[in-house]
Amino acid sequence: MKKLHYIDGNDVRLLHSGGEYFSVLLAAIAQAQHEICLETYIFASDVTATRVRDALIAAAQRGVVVRVVIDWLGSGRDQALQLTALLVAAGVECRCFNPWFRRGWARTHRKICVIDRQRAFLGGFNIISDDISDDGWADTLPFPRWDFAVAISGPLVTHIHLEADAQWRRTGRLDLLSRIGLMRDLRTDAKVSRSQLRHLSRAALVVRDNLRNRATIQKAYLHALGNAHHSAVLVTPYFAPGRKFRRALISAASRGVNVTLLIGVNQFVLQDAVAHSYYPKLLSKGVRIVEYRKTQLHAKVAVIDHEWATVGSSNFDALSLFVNHEANIVIRDKHFNQRLTTELQQGIDDGVEVLLEDYVSRAWYRRAWYGTVYLLYRGLMRIVTLGSYG
């Protein structure tokens, strides 16, 4: 694949749990002086979301330009409309992404906030309390949701702001010529930034959309797995990748790489069934699978060889890898990666390992159920992804 363009000189801080993330985010919003760009899949109406909403309104009322993009489906139709009206009335510019699926199946699943073009936040956190389930049922979780994000300052923020601003413009009324111009501007700005870099890189922004970057996040994972030598720990709440991704995991394990998948379970029955359909082959080829059952797992992160790490919004499923707009950061920093590795090891210790002998002893009708759901999922996703998913 085309190499990622790493940018040196960034301060990248790992944020674990909503308590840590929202305290830092709210402090940054309170300190904003010029501009706030926020993009999220879910903007709920609970206590945490209300604090963020009120902080954005306060910023707008003191003269900060505040632009918010929320996903119409992720936030819910009624909540999206009510929140948009409230924010606009209070001086915040707010737009819904792809209402009524007018622009196809894609959702914006990205979680980005850029403040004064100096600081950025990116990861898996929606604007929702981390002790409440995010599946629409609003159940109280036994422990805070397990998730990660990064706080970034440095030259990479320019690229993140560029993407956030582009999404804002895309959600407006752009004619065809304006959209072509936007694509040209994105390419030009990226080239200018890269041409000024003449030293070792450290972090890269990787986005997925349905124009310029249709498979960039998956390709970044495949490249990293293809070059893995020792270990690979990959974490996702929803595991339903296509054949290329699964083959990359198996290929790494067959070379002697210690491959561990930490997967969230017990949120969606059908999603669990699809994931279980992959278990026999992965386990038989040496891939270690651990299910996280302590609370809701929402992290989308990985560490490979302690040299390569990623934190972002992309799950390992067809919607994230082939349909939705996503954003990840890839970090090449041993100190950061060691901190993330420690957190992931704790998640593995809190999980339950799946053994091949335990799996194959399950009743035949349960295994038949897994296979049936997988075939239905594959057929549907082939339609939604226009044949990209396999």
Low-pLDDT ranges: 176-180, 186-201
Multimerization status: single chain
The level of helicity is 40-55%
Give the overall shape: globular
Mean pLDDT: 92
Query: In angstroms, what separates the terminal alpha carbons?
Result: 19 Å
Strand content: 15-25%
Order of helices and strands: EHEHEHHEEEEHHEHEEHEHEEEEHEHEHH
Structural class: alpha/beta
Number of strands: 17
Described by strand count, sense and barrel closure, the largest sheet is: 8 strands, mixed
Task: Walk across the major sheet and give the strand order.
Answer: 8-16-14-13-9-11-12-17
Radius of gyration: 20 Å
What count of helical segments does DSSP give? 13
What report would you give on this structure?
The structure is a single chain. The chain is of the alpha/beta class. The two termini are 19 Å apart. It has 13 helices and 17 strands. It has helices at 18-31, 47-61, 72-75, 77-89, 156-170, 176-195, 216-226, 243-254, 269-284, 318-322, 334-350, 356-360, 364-384, and strands at 11-16, 35-40, 65-71, 93-97, 112-115, 119-123, 148-153, 203-208, 231-236, 239-240, 258-264, 288-292, 301-304, 308-312, 316-317, 326-331, 352-354.
Keywords:
alpha/beta, 390 residues, 13 helices, eight-stranded mixed sheet
Question: What's a concise summary of this model?
Answer:
This is Cardiolipin synthase B. This protein has helices at 18-31, 47-61, 72-75, 77-89, 156-170, 176-195, 216-226, 243-254, 269-284, 318-322, 334-350, 356-360, 364-384; strands at 11-16, 35-40, 65-71, 93-97, 112-115, 119-123, 148-153, 203-208, 231-236, 239-240, 258-264, 288-292, 301-304, 308-312, 316-317, 326-331, 352-354.
